[in-house]
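Handout, page 2. Input:
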Amino acid sequence: MSVEFLEKYNGILRGVMQWENLDDLWSAIRGQKGEGWYLYSPGHALPEKLADSEELDHFISRMDTLLREEHDEDYCGIVYTDDFSNPALVKIFDPNNLGTSCGSSKTPSQPGWIMSRNKPVPLGTDIVLSGKRKQWWSRLWN
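Output:
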């Protein structure tokens, strides 16, 4: 079990409130050349390997488009990270399944996607994925 992943996942995260801050976060991640990232969608199989730079760029580009098109707000507020300048974990909540993404509930919603520099662990089996999201994740890698 990846203790490091769970420590980051359950640790203090900061919300990416403005779209410009999301741009900055993506730049910081892309700027970490040589730093591997696991890309994980809870409810799907755990990633077996780190994403290469092409896969990472593809994921960021597609995720950015999805968030901006489907989160119909003038602010972001659904992406959280442990560190804006040197991130090691990013939680991205599905704009169509937000629930209590701020974590103020006893059972907060799980993120739709996780970017982690530590190998993730399964986060439970109670995740309900819409057919649309299952297809999106499958098409992302095909």
